[in-house]
Amino acid sequence: METIVHEFPPYREHETAPEPEAHGHHADIGFWRKYIFSSDHKIIGIQYGFTALCFMLFGFFLMLMMRWQIAHPGAPVPVVGPLLAKLLGQPAAGGIMSPELYNSFGAMHGTIMVFLAIVPLAFAAFGNYVVPLMIGAPDMAFPRVNMASYQAYVLGGVVMLVSFFIPGGAAQAGWTSYSPLATSIPTDGQLFWILGMVLLITSSLLGAVNFIATIIQLRAPGMTWMRLPFFVWAQFVTAFLLLLAFPPLEAAAIMQLMDNAAHTSFFLPTGLAVGGQLAHISGGGSPLLWQHLFWFLGHPEVYVLILPGMGIVCEIIANNTRKPIWGYKSLVYSVLVVGFLSFIVWAHHMYLTGMGTKIATFFQATTMMISIPSVIILTCLFISLWGGSIRFNTPMLFALGFLPMFGIGGLTGLPLGLAPTDIPLHDTYYVIAHFHYVVAPGTIFALFAGIYYWFPKMTGRKMNEFWGRVHFWGSLVFMNLVFMPMFTQGMEGMLRRMADGGANYSAARVPGALNTLPNDIMALHTWILWAAIALGLAQVPFIINLFWSIHHGEKVQNDNPWEATTLEWQAPTPPPHGNFAEPPQIYRGPYEYSVPGHATDFTPQNEPDRPGSPALAPAH
Amino acid sequence: MSELKTAEQHNKPLRGESELHEHPVDFNNYLRRCVYVFVAVVCAVSLMLVASYLPHFDWPAKVTMILAIACSNAFVVAGFLMHLISERKMIYTLLAFTVFFFAGLIGLTVWAMQDFPAGTTH
Amino acid sequence: MEIPYAVYPRPDTGIYNAKVGIWLFLASEVMLFGALFSAYVLLRVGAPTGEWPHGWLNVTLGTVNTLVLALSAITTLLAWVACKTRQFDKFKIFHACTLMLALTFLCIKACEYHDKWIHYEIQLTDGRIADGHLRGSDANSVTIEGRYVTDEKDLYDLRAQKEIKSGEITIPRSQIKSMENYGPWHNTYLALYFTLTGLHALHILGGSIVIGYLWGPGRKLWKTDPEHFTNRIEVSGLFWHFVDLVWIFLFPVLYLT
How many CB pairs under 8 A join B and C? Predict the structure, then answer.
């Protein structure tokens, strides 16, 4: 059924045939067009990557200051306290975080980590750099749209950062920005948040269109759907999630913008009182409507956060076990099912909004169903290790670390997905532990793995192995020390978003009262703080390694230092504009490692069956 | 218009006449079809106006009628003016998923707002 | 290496790149307007009985706008057909018509918005409500062309009321408790009306700018690569048709129900 395209490209852009030498000859376009306003997917990928890593570091610092406040409520923040006071003024007077400042740091930590760090790094950075190379394309389908997408992202980030410095500070209503709180806070932070979100959503939408069109249209001859590396499938599904799930949030953001700026009542109910007084609004709105529209995106969003990571881990495991991935077809079907189901599970974030039993059961059922393909994906990756000749290099260490960490994160999601068990756990630290396990030791490990793995292709040098291992072990140990105690805290009833770390509800404050937070639970705050600081220190070798290795890392001996089968490793290092000197012809699947009878233990996708033979392997 | 072409056929220089033979698009045919579409739209709009002012029907019934007419109107525009009738399977698949998720968004949200334990709202 | 399938279709999918791109984008737009429509459904179904407006919008103007947009959709298609049959003069005429029709739509919309802007609901100190269009105001009084009602509910369903007598009313400011015009803040129906039609109008504007560019400075591409130019006309035409489709649902939902 699939026709294999022989000619590539089978058309001509111009009336007359271009001279043979004209291919790839581009006049020198100058520094600005080459590095800043570039439409080359590789440059854009690197731009996204560095910007996202900077935002991730910034979000990390926000969290450190919050953890200090939780462990020592009301005490001035050490080291950065005076700087905070100078930059932010009254909310940080004397270097002490006021509750409003804590709330805004919390809201912005979430927003920045999700929308400015992880999604741009996992989807846009890795996707942009690797996907066209992996499918044998010269660039993305719409290079200038790609550039616009990056620029919208930067603008959105600037708006979010600027919001810290406006009077009243940044948004304070959580990354979820629930109405009516988001409209009742009398500062402009929420407005900036909404404007930033609109820009970021625009960026993601443009990117999603680009990715899907590229993967559908620009696969090289012979690259059938079932010969695509799993990473490409993961990015494909992720792009669909972004394409179809983000617009309802954009609509909701527009309506909340109208509520904030034009005093409409989309989400404000009749009879709303603010500060003890009846609000001067028309009423008739529904706060629940905001929640539905937000979580309609919010749930597919978490799959956006995890799927590219799973794709990266799959590539690295195949490469470092020197054998094909177990269950390629299961992986593909599972990722498609996960993407599909992710649209109809969202209200499991809303079990405590007074839903009836029928609708709660529906969402509970779909939530349980979606865990099946997720487990299938993880199982396939685990089974792929069996019988492999495992090479324990840094990318593989991070990929291996991803597996149990994502396992913990995923399994702890089950009590949250079941409505009855969610009742005591909703909005507690258990939830924080669950989702951080999936994203922090989960996705971020996969992203670190990807950076170490694809660094040689981008720069022609490897990152330092020793410091890579230091980075890995430090991150693994301290991530677990930070987040594991939070499960216990959550089960004891410690709620989220408390600026004083729960001191108001502690046994120390009201001795003898029922169901207070015991001292040993409160004591965990100090442990977590120190673990978080150590986690931050563990990133220092990585940051130094990253920059140092660009010019001083061990040079690679050829284009394919990891001896990988996928197409990006058959391109020059680093790939030039247009990527491949000749359009590649694909003959086989993506994971042909240790094929019996073959001279080497890996067979690249574009290697013909017999030398010099034009025969094509049959499509699956 | 949707036949597979070899490289040679695509690489032929484009001149008006040969292009027309490869892509048989008849202007007058299209003009006629456009008139039909416009007439259909005018009819649909008139029907909606009539339905909206009909006495003896309550609002839910009227809304259902009007939306049904609007859907057929939309189908005519999408089918003919957007060429959806002669589009490829890939576009249909994309739109089918979109429609499904759109239906889920509206249907599940309405259901969620309507299903709550008795006596918990006013 | 140039990007393949930018102008001619890829054999197995049968489509060129930009067409895939625009349909994907339109799918996302369906979800965008879909979410707004879902907001409409929810807020209307959740409103107390008798408190949802009917007949607040001018159906004649709405109908005219619907026909204007439908006609523009047709001229858009014919502009593409003209490009496909290499009749550039016809293309110029048809897309000029499209742009004029778009401008007409926006002007009518602006008139409708203005009508709402000067329509006031005035709560009086004696408990009555004066409702009508502002004709004049000064330091002491406010003049509207409208009527008095005693119950706010009488202002909602205008279609059920047989004959609404309106005359010129002058109200001294001392009798006015509060005054609010029919902007999006006035009630959720108007909030939805302004947001939905406002977003739609922005799409009309955006589409007009793109079509205007292609009709004007962008027509250079016709000389070097007519098929590529034709594809751009098709892709922008698809967007335009989508915007027409949205209006096909907006018109009955807001004006007729």
Answer: 130
pLDDT at A14: 34
Q: How much is the pLDDT for A610?
A: 63
pLDDT below 50 — which residues of chain A?
1-25, 612-620
d(CA A231, CA A589): 13
Confidence of residue B88 (pLDDT cuts 50, 70, 90): confident
Say if residues C9 and B4 touch (Cβ distance below 8 Å). no
Residue A4's pLDDT is 34
Single pTM value for the model: 0.91
Contact C200, C246 (CB under 8 A): yes
Chains with ≥3 CB–CB distances under 8 Å to A:
B, C
Mean of pLDDT over chain C: 93
Name residues whose C-beta falls within 8 Å of residue C134's C-beta, 6 or more positions apart in sequence.
C118, C119, C120, C142, C143, C144, C181
A280: exposed, middle or buried (C-beta count within 10 Å: 0-12, 13-18, 19+)? exposed
B19 contact C CB<8A: yes
Q: CB distance from B107 to chain A under 8 Å?
A: no
Q: Can you give the pLDDT at residue A487? A: 97
Per-residue buried b or exposed e for B55-71, using 16+ beta carbons within 10 Å of the residue's own CB: eeeeeeebbebbeebbe
Q: Does B31 touch chain A (CB under 8 A)?
A: no
Find the CB nearest C12 among A3, A218, A255. Answer: A3
Name the burial class of residue A249, with classes exposed (0-12), middle (13-18) and buried (19+) by CB atoms within 10 angstroms of its CB: buried
Count of residues in chain A: 620
CA–CA gap between residue C147 and residue C161 (Å, rounded): 13
* Distance (Å) from the alpha carbon of C81 to chain B's nearest alpha carbon: 6
The pLDDT, as a whole number, for residue A434 is: 97
Of C3, C33, C192, the CB nearest to A139: C3
pLDDT tens digits, one per residue of B94-115: 889 999 999 999 899 889 888 8
Residue A82's contacts (CB-CB under 8 Å, 6 or more residues apart) are: A95
The answer for residues whose C-beta is within 8 angstroms of residue A103's C-beta and 6 or more apart is A172, A173, A174, A497, A499
The pLDDT of residue B79 is above 50: yes
Task: Give the type of residue at A573.
Answer: T
